[in-house]
Specification:
alpha/beta; Rossmann fold; 8 helices; dTMP kinase activity; nucleotide-binding; ATP-binding; EC 2.7.4.9; kinase
Length: about 220
C-alpha cells in the first residue's frame, strides 16, 4: 500500500467531526483526488446500513456483544470496499473513528473486555491499523455539556444518551489505548478554541503525511 491512513478519535463532545470537516475544507484543494475522507461506522452502502441499526435510539434492547460485532462487521466491509482500495491507489485516508473506538466504547464502556474487543477487530481488519491516530481529549462532563448545548435532538444517537458512568469508562478506555500506543497516538487538547484545535490538527497531518503536501 502506497497511501497513508490517519484516524480521528475522541469521546463524545470532543468535536473531532467538526474539526475534521474544517480540516478537510482547508486541505482538500491541495490534495484533490489524492484525499479520501470517510467515517465509521459507515463509509459505504452496507456499512451505513449497519450504522443505522447500531445508532437507532429505538434499539434499546441491543446486547453489548451484538453491538461490538456489528461495529466489527461494518468495519470489515468499510475496510475492504473503501479504505484498502484508496490506500492501494496511494491516497491519504482520513477516517472519523476506527478500531480504537470499539476498544474504548464497547470494550471499556460496555465492560465486555478491551482485549476481547481488540482481538475481534484484529480478525475483522487482518491487523491493519492506522499510521497515526489523532486523539482529541476532553473531560467527560465538558463533552456532554457540549452535546446538550449544540447537538439537535434528531442528531443525538443511542450512545449519546448513556449514563455519565458509561462515558467515564469510555474516556478511561481511550487513555489506556493511547498509553499503550504512544508511537501511534498524537494527543490534542480539545478544550482549546476551535480555531487552535483545527490548526494543530492540520500541523500534525502535514508533518505525518508531508509527502502529500510537497510542491
Amino acid at each position: 500500500m502506497t497511501g497513508k491512513f490517519i484516524t480521528f478519535e475522541g469521546p463524545d463532545g470532543a468535536g473531532k467531526t467538526t474539526v475534521m470537516n474544517n480540516v478537510v475544507e482547508k486541505i482538500s484543494s491541495l490534495l484533490g483526488d489524492r484525499l479520501l475522507v470517510t467515517r465509521e461506522p459507515g463509509g459505504n452502502k452496507i456499512s451505513e446500513q449497519i450504522r443505522n441499526v447500531i445508532l437507532d435510539r429505538k434499539n434499546t434492547e441491543m446486547d453489548a456483544r451484538t453491538e461490538a460485532l456489528l461495529y466489527s462487521a461494518a468495519r470489515r466491509q468499510h475496510l475492504v470496499e473503501t479504505i484498502i482500495p484508496a490506500l492501494n491507489a496511494g491516497k491519504l485516508v482520513l477516517c472519523d473513528r476506527y478500531v480504537d473506538s470499539s476498544v474504548a466504547y464497547q470494550g471499556s464502556g460496555r465492560q465486555i473486555g478491551m482485549d476481547e474487543v481488540y482481538q475481534m477487530n484484529r480478525f475483522a481488519t487482518e491487523d491493519l491499523l492506522p499510521f497515526k491516530t489523532i486523539y482529541f481529549d476532553i473531560p467527560v462532563q465538558v463533552g456532554l455539556d457540549r452535546i446538550a448545548a449544540h447537538r439537535s435532538k434528531d442528531a443525538v444517537d443511542r450512545l449519546d444518551v448513556e449514563a455519565v458512568s458509561f462515558h467515564e469508562r469510555v474516556h478511561d478506555g481511550y487513555l489506556k489505548v493511547a498509553k499503550n500506543n504512544q508511537e501511534r497516538f498524537v494527543m490534542i487538547d480539545a478544550t482549546k478554541p476551535l480555531s487552535e484545535v483545527i490548526e494543530s490538527t492540520i500541523s500534525v497531518i502535514k508533518t505525518e503525511a508531508q509527502e502529500f503536501f510537497k510542491e
